[in-house]
Amino acid sequence: MGGRARRSTLAGRLRAAIHGEGAEEVERFHIKGIDPIRDLRQCLPGFAPTVVVDVGANVGQSAAVFAAAFPHAEILCFEPVSSVFEELQQRFAVSRRVHCVRCALGAESGSGSIVLSGSTLHSLAASPTAESAGGTEPVEVRTLDEVCRERGIEHVDLLKIDTEGFDLEVLRGAEELLAQQRVDVVEVEAGMNPENSTHVPFETLKRHLERHDYRLFGIYEQKEEWPTLQPHLRRTNPVYISQRTIDRHRGHSPGTPP
Q: What is the chain's alpha carbon radius of gyration, rounded to the nearest angstrom?
């Protein structure tokens, strides 16, 4: 009975912490899965990115968070849709650290078409004739390996990918970077059930990244099947870290100096 009471008390304290009634409890019990930046800082002492790549930057929601969290980071944003890119570029017009590039990233360089929709969420078309209520728009496609070579980027501290189903293609275009462990942290968007035909399955992304010696760090933004109003998971944002990064922090518990 005493054990049950202790567990109930702990559960209550954790719930209170999550709901803002005691933020210090979050730190004490190190609850992972809420804020990836906080978790990375806790588990990787000294985590202070100087190069962040945001693929599928949209209007800069994530880039703004990165810019605030990492004041010394150069942030490279990729957004292919012209109308969305204009908003992105305007948002960071006075920033010297956020650099916006209008193109899509994929497995190989070339050209493609982007499927437009009524929202700001878009995806590359599987073929130039892909149908959409909003039509399509031609886009330039580059590989991340190629862009980094051109810009002299040797190392990426944080790579965030959100391309509405083309995350695996982006990773395939970063083969050199991943194979050489020149990316420390990778965040992708993954489908979590077989009915989700929009996002790349979690298992597929996991296999690809594990082949390059990346390991799952945490799972964030767990979203239920909102289109069908069902309670099971539709998508998540898994975060992976390189084996080199793991080795560099081996033996250090969260919050302790390296």
A: 20
